[in-house]
Amino acid sequence: MRLKAFALTAAAAGALVLAAVAAAAVINGTPGDDVLRGTEHADEIRAFAGNDQIYARGGADLVRAGTGNDGTRAGGGNDLVYGGGGNDVIAGADGNDRLYGGSDSDTVAGGEGNDRAAGNKGGDVVSGDGGNDSLFGGWGPDRVYGGGGNDELHALAADGDPDLLNCGPGHDTAFVLRGERPRTQLVGCEVVVVVDTLTADQEEGENSDADAEADG
User: Fold this and answer.
1) Taking the model in full, what pTM does it have?
2) Sign of dihedral through CA atoms 153, 158, 159, 162?
3) I want to staple 117 with a disulfide (CB 3.0 to 4.6 A). Which of 76, 99, 201, 208 is the partner?
4) How far apart, in whole angstroms, are the C-alpha atoms of residue 174 and residue 167?
5) 109 closest CA partner among 150, 68, 143, 64
6) What strands, in cross-sheet order, belong to the sheet with 44-46?
7) Local structure of 64: helix, strand or coil
8) Residue 83 bridge partners (DSSP)
């Protein structure tokens, strides 16, 4: 049976939107503080402004938290989450998630899968958990923690701010931009790679909030 997507929109600011349906959904928040819950399918959740709480649940979801100090919890699928403006908290779950903070000071934590987690602007805290993760700080004084698995930790913004890369258990690799090496504290990293220029993949990690800002 083919699932058809449909849209749900909160009727008023501060609303709770719960999609308990047998189809993928497009779930829209309001300018106020919302609680948004996805379905067990592949949803698109757009919170817009306000200090929102977002629960993606199952399926490979796309979440745009928008502006405000938001909390987003990925679900069991391979989710893509953009934090947007505000001091956001983003947490992965069991899937192989891509989790991106925005323009302020964010906390971005991977889950049990092989995740890609990145801060952007502001002093961010980025961490892995289980799995082999790719973790990026961004612009500002960032702290990046590897967690379990064989992780890659990146401090590649030419911002002049001090960063911490704490690799943790596993066989981990730290990538540091050459001019930032004296300001980067490395803890427990088995391999250190000093780079002169960023690759396209590294650029994507360091400039992760363009789509979220356009939507917020």
Assistant:
1) 0.86
2) positive
3) 99
4) 8
5) 143
6) 6-9, 25-28, 44-46, 62-64, 80-82, 98-100, 116-118, 134-136, 152-155, 173-177, 191-195
7) strand
8) none
| Eight-state DSSP code of residue 99 | E
Which of 121, 105, 108 shows the shortest CA–CA distance to 72?
108
Q: List 154's β-bridge partners, or say none.
A: 136, 175
Sequential DSSP letters for 110-179: --SS--EEE--SSS-EEE--SS--EEE--SSS-EEE--SSS-EEEE---S---EEEE--SSS-EEEEEGG
Query: Cα separation of 124 and 103, whole Å?
Result: 10
Which single residue is written with the structure tokens 């805290």?
A: 125
As beta bridge partners, residue 187 has 166
Q: What is the tens place of the pLDDT at every residue in 28-58?
A: 999 999 999 999 999 999 999 999 999 999 9
Question: Where do we find the tokens 């399926």?
Answer: 59
Q: Is residue 207 a contact partner of residue 82, using CB atoms and an 8 Å limit?
A: no
Question: Which of 81, 73, 77, 118 is closest to 96 using CA atoms?
Answer: 77
Instruction: Report which of 100, 132, 140 is spatially closest to residue 113, judged by C-alpha positions.
Output: 132
Regions of the chain short of the pLDDT cut 50: 1-8, 10-13, 20, 209-216
Q: How far apart are CA 120 and CA 118, in angstroms?
A: 6
Contact at 8 Å (CB) between 168 and 153?
no
Tokens found for residue 194: 């000093």
Q: How far is CA 162 from CA 88, 140, 141, in A?
A: 21, 8, 5
